[in-house]
Structure formats: structure tokens, C-alpha cells
Amino acid sequence: MEVQRAFGGASIVRRYADSIAREVKASVAASTANSYAPKWTQFTEWCLEHGECPLPASEESVAAFLACACDKDRTVGPTKKRSAAISFFHTSNNRPSPCEGEFVSRVRKGISRRLGRTGGKMEAVTQENVVAVLRLAKRSGHAPNRLVADASAVMHEAQLRFDDAVSVSVGDIVWEKHFLRILVVGTKTDADKDGQWGFLAASEHRWSGYQRLLALIRRGIARFGGLPERVRRSLTKGLMQDMKRPFLQSGESAIETIPDEISAAASKVGLTPEVLENLPLLGTWLGDDLDASGNLRSTMKYRQFLGTLKALFTKAAGHRAEDIGTHSLRRGGTTAKIAAGIDTRLVKFLGRWRSDKAFSGYIDAGVTAQLCAEAVERSRSAPPRR
């Protein structure tokens, strides 16, 4: 983030630019703030190229930038993020956002109508779709396929975003008798930045989110044990640099709640509790060890995960690739809970939403109607109770 450029207004702001940047960045989710930086850089470079002032920017220059940018990438997706980045850096510098004016709003609406998708939301996937993907991934024998399929089952049932799932380590999971809790940190709905909880019910069903989470952890431990000693040392050093632990009322570490079979397997391959605690669920090395440059990668990148996700659901469940995204899992898990008759307030709590408006957007009416109809049909064919 180019602090001096972003906070180049009053002299007092320039003097304390680094401190201000730190606090402003902390005011939003880390993933959101990081995604704003390249969009802001793109805008400032465009302004400098065309002799416009990026901060404060005029409505006309923002509208022209958005129109030119969408002509290049031919998609509506980045427009919202570019506008959000411009607004973020203006309000951070105590300036009104030029994106709120009528002129920019009309341009954004035109881009959306011309290039946007009908409905604008990713299709919700059902539990049946997820199981089909899990079966396909197992038959393929391809490690990245199995990694993404297992993660999809967890994300679907626990209503997790990709940014939520990719930040989870083994030490973020608290195992209870009938369920487990997954600590989710840094989300945009976490106002106090002290973490939120995702939940999975304990289940013996092989395709459940609970069992697929166990499979992810077992695979991570096994892959760690099979890595060369040099790579294991490098991985251990990297994992120990960013330690975080859920706050438990009893004061114990979350790692102390992990099932004995997992602890025993980790000990067998030389994984200490400290390293196991920081083992990521979505480490790319679980699928293909090293990248092209030979450097160890820590967690899976979004585009890599999304590409595999689209391919799996297209082949296994018959979806169109353009209709599937990581939010398809969160929408599908939310929809399934509503269709199953779980109280709406509880579903909202489990999905960690703060507003009813945002929550309602994750309920797919078509899928809900289908699932409810299937439930009614099953009840009709069920034998009468005695």
C-alpha cells in the first residue's frame, strides 16, 4: 500500500501516515483491505496517465475510469471492488467518496446491466451436489481435487467463505462431544475483531462436513510426514511465525481438545503440538508439494481453488461453470438449513451475519422450494407412526 500517495492531504496526515494507515487498514477485514490496494494503485496510475487528480477525485474521472476499465476486462465483477477501493481511500483521508454521486451510480448501473449476470448471484449447490463432487474427486485420485472437494463439504455445512476457510489452522478448531467449533478471524462481519465461530455437527456419515474435516487433517499430517527433511524444516519454520489460538473459557488450548487418534498420528510423523496447531487445512503443499520455483507455499490461492471447484461441480453435478463460485457453497449450506426447518434466527447466527438484508441474499428461493417439496414427498411415503 502506497501510504504517502493514499494519505497525501494535510501535513498532519502526512506526518502520521503510517500510523493512520495501520488503523484504517484494521477497520476492515484484512482480506478486504489487501484487495483494495491493487485497485487503488490501478486508479491512481490511470489518473496520472490522463492528468487527473486521484485524491480527491472528481465524479467525472471516476466514471471515466470505471468505463475504460470494464472495456478492457469485459466483465462487471471488478467494477464494484474498484469503486469500493476508491471510496475506502477517500473516506480514510476524510474526504467524501466520489462514488456516491448520481453520475457514477448511473455509469455503474449501465455496466451492470450490459455485462452483468441475470440475478447477479452464484447458484446455490445442494448437499447432493457436494456428495457427487466428493465421489468424483475420490475416483480421480488427484490430490488437489480431493483437497477442494473435502473443503467444499466443510464450507457448505459450516457456511464458510473462502477467506474464512483458507485462514483456518488445526489449532483454530475446538472439539466438543457432539460438535466442533471453527474459529474464523478477520471477517468483515466481526466488528470487534475477536473472532467468530463456525460449527459442524459430529457425524459418522462419510460425506459429512465433520468427516471431511477429519480427512483434511489426516491428509495434512500424512503429507507432512512424507516431505523431505529440508522441506519439513522450512515448513515448520513458516508455520511457527504466525501463531493464533482461540480463547477458551477454561483457559486450555484448542489443540488439547483434538481427538487422540489425530494427536497420535501427528506424533508418529514428528509433528509437535505447536506445529500441528498451525497446520493449515488448505495448504497447497497438501496437493502438489512445491510450486514451479521450488519454494514451499503455505495456503491455497483463491483462483486455484475456484478453478478446481468449477471443474468439479461442472462435471459431477451438471452446473455451468459461470454459475458456480465459492459463495455457491455458503448459499447452498444456508439454503439447506432453511429448507430443513431450522429456525431462521439460528441459521443467521450460524452463518455469522449481522444484518437481515445480507442474510436473506444467501437464501436461494428456487432451491429451497425444491428441497421443501422433496421433504413433503418423503413425509407422504414414510410409514405412519404407531
Describe it:
This protein has helices at 3-6, 11-15, 17-26, 30-49, 59-73, 77-92, 102-115, 127-140, 143-158, 162-166, 209-226, 229-239, 260-268, 273-277, 285-288, 302-317, 327-339, 344-351, 356-360, 365-381; strands at residues 173-175, 179-184, 196-201. The N and C termini lie far apart (68 Å). It is 58% helix and 4% strand. Helix 4 (30-49) packs across helix 6 (77-92), helix 5 (59-73) runs antiparallel to helix 6 (77-92) and helix 5 (59-73) runs parallel beside helix 7 (102-115). A 3-stranded antiparallel sheet has the order 1-2-3, covered by helices on one side. It folds into 2 domains: 3-115, Tyrosine recombinase, N-terminal domain (DNA polymerase, domain 1); 129-320, no CATH class. The model is unreliable at 1-10 and 289-295 (pLDDT under 50). The longest helix has 20 residues, at 30-49. The relative contact order is 0.10. It has 386 residues and is mainly α. The chain has 20 helices and 3 strands. It is globular and about 65 Å long.
